[in-house]
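Tokens for chain A. Residues wanted.
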């Protein structure tokens, strides 16, 4: 099971503090993976004959379908129809559906979820992020939680930091971006294959969003993973830096010894003068020593910068000798 599935299952077990929070979570689930059919006025004589009076959700997450079904019973006293079937493209995947088909119940549910609106003829229904349904802070959190349960995903934090919500309409995506932004998090939205993807990429923002949704266990797992990942990256950077420094030191020492041999073969080390000759001999005797170590062995001792300066002078002399020879 993926980390994303673990987060969803944990969120499915989060209880809503009140009825209005449950309504916000249900609205998000329907907005994300649901369908709202034709809903007419209750006084319409033909309301009982409206075949499309339906609210339905479809999801591969059985826990999400079960939670929606339970909230229908608990908060609306509605016994929805639940069904499970195998997905045609993949025999191992299941599609779980929950339907409310009774016209009166459908209308009551659509009204509570903020989907009913009035046009010139009658009441009709459309999915939307209702400002009334998401008025309080707790309801905003519940809505975000429902949106993730129904259409969210989260990469394994050991590999990458990326959390996203899939929304079917631009208006729904923009509404979700606004809700997340209200908590100080920088969510962004892009179109992808006919849908709208609301996403966050920074690890700190994702941790904060998990806290907002109520996924505290998953939050702790992600934080532990982030700490281990950061320590590993820090160690790798330190090792790489040390390896680079060692390589640089070895390369410099090889060139310095080559320059000294050039001077020795062409002029002799006495050509350098006392100070440079002393450094040159120490460099040849201790080819793996650092500049600081070489400086401490001189008489009198010389600092690292002083040794570096003398070795540069030796290199210049060797280059001049090579140039004169050519």
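Reply:
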């Amino acid at each position: 099971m993926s980390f994303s599935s673990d987060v969803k299952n944990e969120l499915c077990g989060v209880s809503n503090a009140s009825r209005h929070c449950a309504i916000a979570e249900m609205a998000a689930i329907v907005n994300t993976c649901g369908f709202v059919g034709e809903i007419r006025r209750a006084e319409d004589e033909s309301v009982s004959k409206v075949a499309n009076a339906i609210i339905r959700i479809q999801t591969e997450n059985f826990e999400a379908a079960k939670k929606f079904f339970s909230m229908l019973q608990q908060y609306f006293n509605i016994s929805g129809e639940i069904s499970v079937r195998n997905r045609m493209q993949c025999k191992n995947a299941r599609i779980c559906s929950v339907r409310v088909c009774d016209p009166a119940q459908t209308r009551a549910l659509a009204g509570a979820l903020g989907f009913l609106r009035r046009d010139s003829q009658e009441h009709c229904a459309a999915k939307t992020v209702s400002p009334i349904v998401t008025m309080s802070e707790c309801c905003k959190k519940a809505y975000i939680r429902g949106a993730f349960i129904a259409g969210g995903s989260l990469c394994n934090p050991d590999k990458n930091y990326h959390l996203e919500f899939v929304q079917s309409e631009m208006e729904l995506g923009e509404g979700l971006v606004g809700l997340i932004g209200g908590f100080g998090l920088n969510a962004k939205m892009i179109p992808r294959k006919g849908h709208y993807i609301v996403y966050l990429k920074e690890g700190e923002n994702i941790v904060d969003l998990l806290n907002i949704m109520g996924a505290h266990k998953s939050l702790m797992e992600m934080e532990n993973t982030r700490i281990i990942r950061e320590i590993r990256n820090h160690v790798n950077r330190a090792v790489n830096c040390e390896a680079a420094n060692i390589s640089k030191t070895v390369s410099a020492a090889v060139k310095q010894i080559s320059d000294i041999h050039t001077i020795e073969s062409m002029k002799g080390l006495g050509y350098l003068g006392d100070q440079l000759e002393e450094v040159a001999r120490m460099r040849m005797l201790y080819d793996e020593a650092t500049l600081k170590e070489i400086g401490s062995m001189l008489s009198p001792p010389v600092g690292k910068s002083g040794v570096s300066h003398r070795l540069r002078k030796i290199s210049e002399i060797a280059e001049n000798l090579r140039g004169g020879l050519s």
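The CA atoms of residues 54 and 106 lie 6 Å apart. Residues 228-325 form one domain.
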